[in-house]
Amino acid sequence: MTVGNMESAQLFDAGSKGRGLRATRELCAGEVVFAEPSFSAVVFDSLATQVCHSCFRRQAKLHRCGQCKFAHYCDRTCQTACWDEHKQECAAIKKMGTWPGENVRLAARTLWRVRKDTGILSDSQLVSVDQLEDHVGDLPEEALKQLKADVNTFMEYCSYGGKQHPVADVSHILGIIKCNGVTLSDQRGTQAVGVGLFPNLGLVNHDCWPNCSVILNHGNQSAVSSALHSQRRIELRAVGQISEGEELTVSYVDFLNLSTDRQKKLQERFHFQCSCKQCSEPAKDHLMMAATESEGNKPSADKVKEVTAFSKECVEKIERLHIEKDYHEVARLCRDCLEKQDHVLADTHLYVLRVLSVASEALSYLQSFSEAAGYARRMVEGYMKLYNPNNAQLGMAIMRAGIAHWHAGQIEVGHSCICRAFGILIVTHGPNHPITRDLESMRMHTEMELKMFKQKVCGEHTTRDAALISSF
User: Fold this and answer.
1) Percent of residues, the chain, with pLDDT higher than 70
2) Residue 347: CB partners within 8 Å, gap ≥ 6?
3) Half-sphere exposure of 421 (CA within 13 A, CB side)
4) Is the pTM of the predicted complex or chain greater than 0.85?
C-alpha cells in the first residue's frame, strides 16, 4: 500500500466518542487499512545512545551527531534522512548544553514542523496535528504541575534565537502528546524505544476488543538509490473481517487487565469512560480472577484471598528483580509463587499468567529450556482463553513458547507453536516485518529438523525390525 493512502478509511461523527474513522469497503484480516509516516517522533532519553534517531532500530554500534553529541544514527544515510527533523533540535541542544525529556523534545519538533510546513503535510492527512484533542482542562492538579514544568523547560530549550512560541500553543501540543502520543517499538517489536505523533491514527477510537492493530514499519534506508528508500511509518492492519461502514478501532491498553482496571487507565490518560462490550459485559473478568476447580471442589474464599494477596506482593518483587536482570532470584521467586498458587488460582488468573510469563523468560535466559517450555505452554493455554485469536501479544507469547520447546529438544511441539505464531503475526505485522521474517526462518528450520528426526526414528525402527527378523 502507498504510504498516506486513505482510500479505505473515512472520517465520521462517532457520536459520544467524537470523531472516528470507518471502513469505506470490506476489509480482510491482515489487510493494511492505511500507512502513515510520523508527523514527529523522538527516541526515549534512556535509549538515546542505543537506538537510531532516524529509523528507531536498536543497534550495537551507532554513529553520534558530531554537533550536539546527543543524536545517534545507524550510518550517514540515516543521519542524512533525519537531518530535516534534527536540524533545529541540534542547534537548541548545542546552545542549551543539555537536552530535555522526550515529551519536550517531541513538542519542539512538532511546533517547528507546524511553523515550517503547517499542521497538514499532505492531502491524505485528515486533520491538522494541532486539531487533535489535548484534554488539558481535564488534567488533575499533579498532572497540571508537570505540564507547567514541561512548558517552562520548553521555553528555555527553544529560547535561543528565532520567534518564540506562545505558552498556550506549547501547553496545547504537550497535552496532545499526552493523549495521542504513540509508543514506538524497536525492529523486533520487543521493547518500546520512542514516541511519535500520527494525526490520522489519532482519529481511531478505542475498543478493548478491537478490529485493528498498529505496528511500526521502520522503513528502509539501505538501498543504494535514495529513490528506493521507504519512510518510517505506522501501519493500521485489520485483525479480522471488517464490513464497509464499520468503525475502525484499536486498543489503547492491554486487554490483560480487569475491565475496571482498563477503564481506570483509560480515564486517567485519555479521559473517557469505555463502554465497549468487553467493559459493559465483562465476560472475561471471572477468568482473570478465577480459582481452580477440580471435580466440583474449590478452595475456600479465605484461601483464595490469602494467595491472591501473596501473589500481588510476589509479582511486584519479581518484576522489580526482572528489570534488574537478577534472573536466578527471579526464577526462585517464580517457582515459590507458582507452588503457592497451585490448586488455588486458575491458570487464567492474572497473577498466575504474569508469573508464568516472567518465569519462562528468565529460565530461557538461564538456558533451563525444558522448565521454561513447561511454563510457557501453561501461559499460552491461559492467554488463548482470554485474548482475541489474532492478538499480537498472543502471537508473541506463542512464538516464545515455540522457541523454548525447540531449544528444549521438543521439536514437534516447537514447530507447531512457531507455525501458529506465524499465522497470527502475519496478520498483525505483515509478511515483511523482521519478526515475521524471523518466524518464517524458524519455521523452515524446525520443519527440516522434524523431518530429519522422523527419518532417523524410521531408520532405527527399520534396523531393529531387520535385527529381529535375522534372529529367527
Assistant:
1) 93
2) 353, 356, 378, 381, 382
3) 27
4) yes
